[in-house]
Write a structure and sequence with these properties.
The protein contains 3 helices and 13 strands. By secondary structure, it is of the alpha+beta class. The strands form 3 sheets. A 6-stranded mixed beta sheet has the order 2-13-11-4-8-7, with no helix packed on it. Strands 5-10-3-1-12 form a 5-stranded mixed beta sheet, with helices on one face.
Length: about 200
C-alpha cells in the first residue's frame, strides 16, 4: 500500500513537472526553416509564446556568416505598445548580432485575469550572401542576456524561457527561365546552320 501511494505521488509530481515545461515561456523564430537561393532576401519574426501578463527581459539574436540584416520592423515598438507592452528597443547591433533588451517590455493587457500572452517581438529581413559550394545550412540563434527575464514584482521567471532558433538552407542561384530559353534557341540556331552547310 505504501509503495502504491508513493508511486502515485511520484507520477503526479512528474506530470506537473512536464505540464510546467510544456507551458514555459518561449522565445522562438518563425518560420523555423527557410530555403533560399544566394542573393535572396527573407523575413523572420521573433515571437514570445506563453509569457505571463507582466514580464520584462531581453535576449540576443545572432546568426552565421553568410546572412546580412537588411532591416528590422520599424513598427515593432508601436505594435507592442498597442498590446499593452512598453518596448525598450534594440540596445545594440554588431556584425552578426542584435541585442534586444535587456528590459525589453513590461505589460499587462493580454486578457482578463491571469493569462499567458503570445506576441510578436521583432521582424527582421535578412539577405543570404553565401557564395560558392553546395547548398549549406546557416543558423539563426536566440539566447539569454543578463539580467534574465522577470515577472510581476521583478521576481525572476521560473523557469526561464526556452529559446528556439531557426535554420536557413542556402542553395546555388537557380538559372532563370529566360536563360533556358536562350540556351535552347542557341542550340536550334546551331542545328539550322549545320543543315545549311551539309
Amino acid at each position: 500500500m505504501k509503495n502504491m501511494i508513493r508511486n502515485t505521488l511520484i507520477s503526479a509530481v512528474s506530470m506537473l513537472a512536464v505540464a510546467g515545461v510544456a507551458n514555459a515561456a518561449t522565445v522562438q523564430i518563425n518560420p523555423s526553416s527557410n530555403l533560399v537561393a544566394t542573393g535572396d532576401s527573407f523575413t523572420v519574426t521573433v515571437e514570445g509564446v506563453d509569457f505571463p501578463e507582466v514580464t520584462g527581459g531581453g535576449f540576443i539574436i545572432s546568426w552565421d556568416a553568410g546572412l546580412e540584416v537588411l532591416s528590422t520592423d520599424a513598427q515593432m515598438a508601436a505594435s507592442i505598445v498597442s498590446h499593452g507592452w512598453d518596448f525598450g528597443g534594440v540596445n545594440s547591433s554588431t556584425a552578426g548580432q542584435l541585442d534586444i533588451g535587456p528590459t525589453m517590455f513590461f505589460g499587462s493587457r493580454c486578457g482578463p485575469g491571469p493569462a499567458l500572452c503570445d506576441f510578436n517581438i521583432v521582424t527582421i529581413e535578412f539577405q543570404a550572401n553565401f557564395v560558392g559550394g553546395p547548398p549549406r545550412d546557416l543558423n539563426l540563434f536566440v539566447s539569454a542576456v543578463q539580467p534574465n527575464w522577470v515577472g510581476p514584482g521583478n521576481i525572476p521567471l521560473d523557469p526561464q524561457p526556452n529559446y528556439i532558433g531557426a535554420t536557413v538552407t542556402v542553395g546555388a542561384v537557380p538559372l532563370p527561365a529566360t536563360a533556358w530559353l536562350f540556351g535552347s534557341g542557341l542550340l536550334g540556331m546551331v542545328g539550322i546552320a549545320r543543315r545549311r552547310r551539309s
